[in-house]
Structure formats: C-alpha cells, structure tokens
Amino acid sequence: MTLWTFIGRQWTRLPPPPKGEYLKGKVVLITGANSGIGLESVKHFCTASPALLILAVRSIEASERVLAELQSLHTDLKGEVISLDLNEMESIKSLPSRLRERGIETIDILINNAGINPGNEAKPAEITKDGYEKTFQTNVLAPVLLSYTLLPFLKQTSSPLIKSKPKIIFLGSGLHATCNNQPIVDAVEREQSIVEIFNREEGFDNKQIYGRSKLLLHMFTRQLIETLVDTSIITVSPGLAITNLGRDFKMSIGFVIFGAPFMLLNARSAEKGARNLTSAVASAEQSYDYWAECGPSYSESSWLSSGQGVRASKAFYKEMIDEIEKISPGVTKAVVAS
User: Fold this and answer.
1) Do 237 and 3 contact (CB within 8 A), yes or no?
2) Range of the domain at 238
3) Per the UniProt record, which residue ranges are transmembrane (predicted)?
4) Which end of the chain lies in a sparser environment, N or C, as judged by fewer CB atoms within 10 Å?
5) Rounded to two decimals, what is the model's pTM?
6) Is residue 215 part of a domain?
7) Mean pLDDT value of segment 224-230
8) Is there a domain that residue 6 lies in?
C-alpha cells in the first residue's frame, strides 16, 4: 500500500451507520466490546433490534456498566456479559458450556473484534501461559479457535428457513499489506513451520508483529472462505482509528515529532471506524475477502495473490488446523475440507 493510497482510504467519506432492524431476531456475539471499535459497533447494534447482544470480554465490571448504560437508553435491549480471555485457551474452550448454562444455543453473527498492538519499541517476545507469542495468540490463533469452537452454535442458524447465512467477521488491518513478510517467505521456501517461526523468541520483531499478525490472519481467512461455504466470512478493515489499541506506543522524540501528528491528522474517530464493521454486519450476505470503506474492497497486498502468497496461505491454513486440533481435539473435524 502506498502512502497516498492509505491517505485516500482514510479520507474517503463514509456513509452513516446502517439503519433499520437488520438484527431483528438475531443473536450477536462480539469480543472486545467495551472500548474502541467494539464499543462503537455495539452502540450501532443497539438500534438494530437484536434478539440478544453478547459481550464476550475480559473486563466484566466495565462491560456490565456499558451494558447497563445502553439498556437505559434502549429499554428493549437484551444483553449478556460473559468472560472471555483470548490469552487463555481454556477460556475459549469452556465458552460453549458457559453459554449453554445461560440458555444460549445459537449465534447468528460472531464478531472477532478483540486484538492487541504491542507498540512501537523494540522489546522481547511475551509468551503466554499456553506457550505462544502474545500478539500471535490474541490476533490470530485465538479468534480462529473461537470461530471453530462456536461453529456448532452458528450451524444451528444455517437453515433454508433462515434468509441469511450465519456470519463470522474478523477484524483486519491495512497494515497486513505494508508489513515485512520476509519471515513468511523464508519459511515457505525452506519448508519450515510458519506457526513455529512466529512463536520463537529468537528473531522476534515487536515493531512488525502487529502487521504480520494481521497478514497471517488474512492468509487464513482467505482459505477459510473456501472451506466454510455455508457461512459468510468477512475480513473487515476499520482503517486507522483513534482507539486505545495504541496504548502501548512509546512517545519517543521521533514519534512525537513525526508519527503522532501524522496519525492524529489522518485517523478516523472510533465511531467512523466502527461503520466499516457494522456495514458488513448489515449488508454482507456472502463471504468477502476484504471489506473496507463500508463495502466490498480488495487487499493492497499483491503478494497475497501471487503464486508464493497462495502457497504460503494454503500451508499456513493447514498448520493452523493442526495447531487448533492440538489445543482442542476434534474441534475442526466436521468442517475440514476434504
């Protein structure tokens, strides 16, 4: 992506949030719903008459306050707050039983919104209790595991009697097209494991990991579209928005002089960024490889569509299926492509 393409996208005039009861009768589960893009999306959803809005979050008390405030404004809103920590695989694996304990058997729309950006300084990899690099687990592995774990809930809605297919939405980023993808290229050429390389402490680049994690996610979702044909898979880019995702950025002199002013000048509000997500929820009735500026779009990464990129994506998809099976045996068996 060139600088001018980025600026052009950022300054594209976005349509207003979707109107009408586009969520009538639908159950929506969204991760990371108490701040930023997630919170603004939830505010949009409240006006769309959802049957149930489930906030899957780490911060229970803060989210309960958010839900209570929203319900005071929308008295018919039915909502649930449930604990979910993407840094703990057991939290994801136990979610189905905890949902069923609350009488929740179906989900129409799953929104994988939660994510982290570890910042702009050089620092060593942080390894989770599950043994994975933290950004890789939070931004790539966890949303993939969550999607497969909740697929039985989504499949319950996949019926000829229901007009629209269930949806799984992943939050992408334009940085997938600008990051240095050399570790992925090297892994494919040397027939090494991409998953293993991204979870080594050796050679870890904290400044690059966020963009690389979004590239890996995009590689996976491109293949997932071909596998889950009865489910709409959409990767949404909200664009650069002012949220707390950048809370770990360090205010170096260079960043203060150049980076911060550029970001503040070109960044959207969180509400405008959320319009990309809510427009996909309201309008997308099929799978889309990339959704940006509130409509179907394209990835600026020419590498993704190259022969090497396609081979890498297929290899990474297979690796991820194997990895998910190690974590939760049997979770992918019903949907793995033959």
Assistant:
1) no
2) 19-327
3) none
4) C
5) 0.92
6) yes
7) 94
8) no
